[in-house]
Amino acid sequence: MHRSLLISCVALGMAAAVGAYASKPTVSTQTAAGADFSAYKTFNWVSTSAPSGVNPVAFQQAISDINAAMAQKGYVQADQADLSLVLSAGKENRAAFSTIGYEVVDVSDYAVGKLTLDAFDSKTRRAIWHGQASKRIDPDKVNPSAVDAAVTSLMAKFPTPVATQ
């Protein structure tokens, strides 16, 4: 009986892990108090270089996806821009514990990938928007569709400038 319960718990844990890979990213955002996005029409990047330890191809894919999303929202990329964007990416290692009552029956390590976008007012250098998408990942294999999904989820929350009449 105890063995079949243990096998059931391990199978359930594996199913949850597979489901975690298929789920949408978790997105959190914050807009600075008083930020008026109707004043912003253009954007540019502070840097387009991938941080040390980050896959440069996936990083460039994320920048390209954000550029497209910004254009779709009505922003124009320009050398002298209203908004300065900073993208960072990385991973965090975590542990999951499966228990039966008070007994730990399984410990598994997993990685959570994070994509963070910050927007600054270029004139004042004030941070006006912060967004982060995070999701369980396989750190040994870049999944381009997961990068696209993270950017799509993150950019869905980015403020759209109000059209001037």
Describe the structure.
The protein is α/β, with parallel strands linked by helices and 165 residues long. It has one domain (2-155): Double Stranded RNA Binding Domain. 31% of the residues lie in helices and 36% in strands. Helix 2 links the parallel strand 2 and strand 3 (76-77). Helix 2 (56-73) packs parallel to helix 3 (144-155).
Fold blueprint:
Layout: H1 2-22, E1 26-31, E2 42-45, H2 56-73, E3 76-77, E4 83-100, E5 103-121, E6 127-137, H3 144-155
Parallel strand pairs: 2-3, 2-4
Antiparallel strand pairs: 1-6, 4-5, 5-6
CATH architecture annotation name:
2-Layer Sandwich
What is the class in the CATH system? Answer: Alpha Beta
In spatial order, strands of the major sheet run 1-6-5-4-2-3
Question: Which fold name fills CATH's third level, the topology?
Answer: Double Stranded RNA Binding Domain
- Going by helix content, strand content and strand pairing, the class is alpha/beta
Please report the distance between the alpha carbons of the first and last residues. 72 Å
Number of helices: 3
Largest β sheet strand count, sense and barrel closure = 6 strands, mixed
